[in-house]
Design brief:
Helix content: under 10%
CATH architecture: Beta Barrel
Largest sheet: 8 strands, mixed
CATH topology: OB fold (Dihydrolipoamide Acetyltransferase, E2P)
Number of helices: 1
Low-confidence stretches: 4-22
Length: 134
Amino acid sequence: MTAAQAQATQNSIIQYAGEYAGGQAETLTAADAFDNVGKNTKVCGLVVSSVHEPEHTFKPTTLYIDKAEDPNFFVYFWHQPLRIGDWPNHADSSIDLTTWFNGKKICVEGRIELDRNTPLINANRWHQYELIQE
């Protein structure tokens, strides 16, 4: 584990389970994601904005990391039908997952894919996320 990974783990509010790479995923920045498409890894950064699509059947939310315009990387998740693990209770009106991540530093673990030449991770499982305490 690198010093940055150790610090992130020590400072984390929610620990990720490490399902995708056995807990040994390399930690990348959003800017590094493009050069690592196809890898199972962990990408960290600040959620600067989010977009929710309520008209879509699965009501996805996209989280833009580090840059809102011309982003280097984004994360998305479906609100329906997936609610796996300890995901915040969608029925709890005090939690609005469409904006809950805004302004938070996170790491997300999974396989980096491309969508319109922008790297992304589809993270529908709560244990893929790690919230970093400031």
